[in-house]
Design goal:
Rossmann fold, alpha/beta, 18% strand, nine-stranded mixed sheet, two-stranded antiparallel ribbon, 2 domains, 392 residues, 11 strands, 14 helices
Length: 392
């Protein structure tokens, strides 16, 4: 066939010097469709066509553009015969899923965006009820993931509970939030919510619970009324065994939440290391959130090297290095610091966002009594600035 094709190319060039390539492309496209149908790896089709178009000395008689267009035309013809109503889709094949179609035009993606946004229950995105911080990262929308990163004791859970409170105040009654408390017992989470409602220390709350003080029942009644059945809390399994990812995903599917908070990521499954857990879990979480259109907030502990880097002023990352940050749409780093007066200060830095410039840091309005944060924050700057790259 190679000799006949070389002769055809020679004659086509001689007889139709201006449009000879079109005829060659049509002929090669038929061959491309045939070998793809017979199972040839798509990556090998171009090489196959180039070999057919070579002369006796191994010189390819057509340009790479001709080969490229012929392979594309072969795919297009095959797709048209199998999926006549999907002319603009890209066709992919795999051993596990068979043939699948991938949309490729702006119009297709706009149609998907339009249908998704029409189902959203809040166009401002999910937040923490802290105006400056929420504005800095631009809100968390359905299908997006946030990583809330910090060393132990940096009050990640407290900020996550701020997200719970803001959800209950802002979201409609047909919405739902699922909170996985895999670190602290679920009864402690309930205690934290009561502390916020009553503005009291944990020890004060426990004393009132012990004494059956009516203020506890009243506060819990207000929380229940505000939640209106929208808050679901899942604790650790009995016996100390962690949930597998399949079990966690099963819970998410049954509850059908709009927002999922996981406190914290590496307490899911049995892994030999945090790095192994992150590498296995993050792609699964990303796939689930995109399939179900839910927003996810992942709380993640910071590794030792990242803690040192955070203190030095260069910033830190969750266990698993940059893997969590790369997958997340938003990353917020929490640092427990100390003010000049010796007071504990919690600083939140937006280390990644797709909706604004990252790098802004805020001192949160910490209420040490109830372990909660107020609705405003103060912009702060690092004492140890990273070295500039350019002379600006």
């Amino acid at each position: 066939m190679a000799e006949k094709l070389a002769k055809f190319i020679e004659l086509a060039r001689r007889d139709s010097p201006d449009d000879w390539e079109d005829g060659v492309i049509q002929l090669l496209a038929v061959e491309a469709e045939d070998v793809i149908t017979r199972g040839m790896n798509p990556m090998s089709v171009g090489k196959h066509l180039a070999k057919l178009c070579s002369d006796g000395g191994g010189n390819v008689l057509v340009s790479g553009a001709v080969i490229r267009r012929a392979v594309a035309e072969g795919f297009r013809s095959l797709k048209a015969s199998r999926f006549p109503s999907h002319g603009d889709d890209v066709m992919l094949s795999s051993e596990s899923d068979g043939i699948s179609l991938v949309p490729s035009t702006s119009g297709q993606h706009l149609a998907k965006l339009t249908s998704e946004v029409a189902e959203w229950k809040n166009l401002e995105g999910y937040g923490f009820g802290v105006v400056e911080l929420d504005r800095a990262y631009g809100g968390l929308y359905p299908g997006e993931m946030m990583a809330l990163v910090g060393a132990p004791g940096s009050m990640k859970t407290s900020l996550a509970l701020n997200a719970v409170d803001d959800f209950m105040y802002q979201m409609p009654l047909d919405s739902r939030l699922l909170f996985f408390s895999l670190d602290m017992p679920p009864q402690t989470v309930i205690a934290r919510r009561l502390m916020r409602e009553m503005n009291c220390f944990q020890s004060e709350l426990y004393r009132m619970v012990h004494d059956k003080h009516p203020a506890v029942k009243e506060a819990y009644g207000r929380i229940l009324e505000r939640d209106a059945g929208r808050f679901r809390l899942i604790g650790r399994p009995r016996g100390g065994e962690p949930y597998s990812w399949d079990q966690a995903a099963n819970i998410i599917i049954q509850v059908a939440p709009d927002l999922v908070i996981i406190d914290y990521l590496t307490l899911i499954g049995k892994y030999r290391s945090e790095l192994e857990a992150v590498y296995d879990l993050v792609p699964k979480i990303v796939s689930l959130k995109e399939d179900l259109g839910i927003a996810v907030i992942l709380l993640s502990q910071m590794g030792r090297s990242s803690k040192a880097a955070q203190k030095s002023g260069s910033g830190g990352h969750a266990a698993g290095g940059h893997y969590v940050e790369d997958a997340a749409d938003v990353e917020i780093e929490l640092l427990k610091d100390e003010s000049e007066g010796g007071e504990t200060a919690i600083v939140a830095t937006v280390t990644k966002t797709r909706k604004n410039a990252s790098g802004k840091s805020f001192r949160l309005d910490l209420n040490a009594r109830s372990l909660s944060f107020g609705g405003t924050a103060e912009r702060v700057k690092r004492l140890k600035q990273a070295a500039s790259v350019f002379n600006i």
